[in-house]
Amino acid sequence: MSAALHDLSIADAGRALRAGGMTSQHLTQHALERIASFDTRLNAFITLTVERALRDAQAADAAFARGEDRGPMQGIPYALKDIYDTAGIATTCHSKLRMDHVPQADCAVEEKFRAQGGVLLGKLATFEFALGGPSFDLPFPPARNPWNREHSPGGSSSGSAAAVAAGYTRLAMGSCTGGSIRGPAALCGIVGIKPTYGLISRRGIFPLSWSLDHAGPLTASVEDAAIALEVLAGYDPRDQGSANVSRPGFRAMLEAGVKGLRIGVPRHFFENAPGVSREVVAGIDHALDALREHGATIVDVRLPDYDDYAACGRIIMFTEAFAIHEKDFRERPLDFAASTYQRMVLGAFVSGADIIQAHRLRRELALASQNVLETCDALITACALDEAPSFGGRDNWTKPSDSPNQTMPWNVTGHPAIAVPTVLSSAGLPLSLQIVGKFFGELVILRIARALEKALGWPRRAPDFV
């Protein structure tokens, strides 16, 4: 067995599979053995679908042998956040309230992976209902950060980030309502992209907030993220938020570089934000210097105050979450984790007038952001304001100024945003930034992310976790 199998990109693994130099069964068995060896320490998986994975791999190899090529995910292992419905496989939302829920149908994302012949490794840990956490009063333990198991991988796509950073899989799916893809990606030193609202169908994904939820991949590299978008993007008439737009080849401009691009930086967002690490700011400046050296123009820009976006997003998120869970909240309140209950209860006390004002503000913020983006090709700003917090540290992030991430603005507006690692902190934990694009501007932000990936020396796999 090759020790480097878990470091193969999706594209490289695909080439090896098509050339006959490797089988999907070999690749899958390696992934399953790695998970079996390490995941008792990381808790990334809730459900490991060993038999299903081996059947998927065998079917992919048989299709290759018949000369069938269904797409870039054929024979490639992947895993899903445990809010994604999978036919015949439990979807628990990491909650006591959904322990016995076994969907009859696949979500739209799983339909696409299965159609291409992907290999499902299993279902991944999350914060309960993608909201509260990390929590120790749930049926499953919280996932841990592969860079240091005493630290959180972030949330709510905690298991997804941990699984990719640990080398279990090159691709895991997450969801993002206020930063739940980019935040964990940032804290685990991987790539996480929240595409434009509506680009990937959310059908069959348990909702947190209908108007803020996005589906997207967490991956080991920018190219892997682009491949995932190529597979998953597309209109779905059964998702009311789905966008009916043309779907480009997301790898088309990856190697185009940044020469001639104009990149805006809203320094007032992060430079003196409460709790921001000087190392995070230095990492962003280092990345901006690299972009300048490669021909990009960097300009300061000004957006509305960050707290306006954060307050707007939280009002909408908590009220919509409470509406979704109201029946269980009234009938089974003690079955929620304490942190989920404490956050969700806020939605019960928001007035109709407050909700209306939040949606009016949301429109204003989206227009203001788009106006700034019309002067630039993309924006670069902070993602996580510090390295991953320890489990013993503060975790009561109820006020906007207490949030460890600055990700909510782009859920409020719907613009695409991608988290990219920058440097390691003095404690050896990953730091990051995020790149924000115009609506359906994924090609540009992927292009910038790829340039940074090469310039800064990522991806790096987490050190062996013992």
Descriptive terms for the model:
466 residues; alpha/beta; Amidase signature (AS) enzymes; eleven-stranded mixed sheet; globular
Structure description:
The chain has 466 residues and is of the alpha/beta class. It has a single domain, classed as Amidase signature (AS) domain (Amidase signature (AS) enzymes), CATH 3.90.1300.10. Helix content is 38%, strand content 13%. Strands 1-3-2-4-6-5-10-11-9-7-8 form an eleven-stranded mixed β-sheet, with helices on both faces. α2 runs antiparallel to α3. The radius of gyration is 21 Å and the shape is globular. About 2% of the residues have low confidence.
> How many structural domains?
1
So how many helices?
A: 14
Mean pLDDT: 95
> Per DSSP, what share of the residues sits in E-state strands of 2 or more residues?
5-15%
Shape: globular
Number of strands: 11
C-alpha end-to-end distance? 21 Å
Spatial arrangement of strands, main beta sheet? 1-3-2-4-6-5-10-11-9-7-8
Instruction: Give the biggest sheet.
Output: 11 strands, mixed
Order of helices and strands: HHEHEHEHEHEEHEHHEHHHEHEEH
Supply Rg. Answer: 21 Å
Poorly predicted spans: 394-402
Q: What structural class results from the helix and strand content?
A: alpha/beta
- Fourth CATH level, the homologous superfamily: Amidase signature (AS) domain
State the share of residues found in helices, binned by percent. Answer: 25-40%
Which CATH class applies here? Alpha Beta
The CATH topology is Amidase signature (AS) enzymes
Instruction: Please name the CATH architecture.
Output: Alpha-Beta Complex
